[in-house]
Amino acid sequence: MINLIEPCPITMSNGKTTEQTFGKKNVQLNYSLCAVLLLCSQLALSNDANTTPVTAAVATHAAAETTSGALSIYQNSSTEIRVEQIAPLVRKSFLSMGAAASSNSQVMHKKILAAMKTAYHPDNFRDRIVSSLNNSLSQSEQAVVLKWLDSPLGRDASLLEAQSIIESYSAGIPATIDEARTSRKSDQTEELLKTVNLAAMASELQLDISINQIAASSFAANARPSEIGANNYSVYFSVTDARRPKMATLNRNYTLAMLKNAYSQLSDQELRQVISFWGSPTGSRYAFALRDGINEAFARANSHFDSEIADIVANTTIAVAAVDE
Fold this sequence. Notes:
With 325 residues, the protein is mainly alpha-helical. The protein has a two-stranded antiparallel sheet with strand order 1-2. Helix content is 75%, strand content 2%. The chain is globular. The model is unreliable at 1-10, 18-66, 100-104 and 318-325 (pLDDT under 50). The longest helix has 44 residues, at 281-324.
């Protein structure tokens, strides 16, 4: 699991620390091994179990092992940190748009923020992403991904990605792009970063997140207590998703800036190794599984948020009507 800590710097495999790279903010990756499965012989000896319960027990443990592998991937990559930023991103975007322009906006405001926190809670995303990883990757493929994440370069890359996600999401798109422009890289390094982006489907994933974030915040900002049933999330998502082609270039530049800031301490040779992982058949399936999982999680979260907003609008309208009477 990735946890924000203060103030101990983490030493990367190249000898530099996150404090040297990012200042006082640090991210620590705590890699825990999955529990070892009970041996079949141990199961067989228990209560003189016959073949049928032993087979069932082995199947149960095998399923648990698969889930543990997918969960370890989620926790040991930068995905967990990215997911933890989603609710704050939606909240930040909503607040930037201002509360609904009505006399009841303050009444609804706190309820909407609470609904956001619940609908876009990290646990909901974790469950869907882990499920997607389980459905898309075999146990052997999960082992390959975990081996990469537990390698010196894999750990460094995840650490740097996580820190860049935190800082970039906090700073916003324009500031992140501007910061990356001040960091000059060789043409070769710039091309390698573009290849990492393509192989990992990074900008596509970021675009999906941006579209859902904008749709949710716009939907919430336009909630009106006098318009029960008129405000529907799907309308805002459709309008926002229609802008996908126009948003693609900006999000690609944003993602490249995040990667540039993240991998500033990696050599070209190390970048080639990152590309080698993401460009492999397992790496490609992993990238697709992550994107599918996040989009599935958003679909569920958006549906929940839609229902919550409908209830908030209805209850606020009833409360106001009671006061007027």
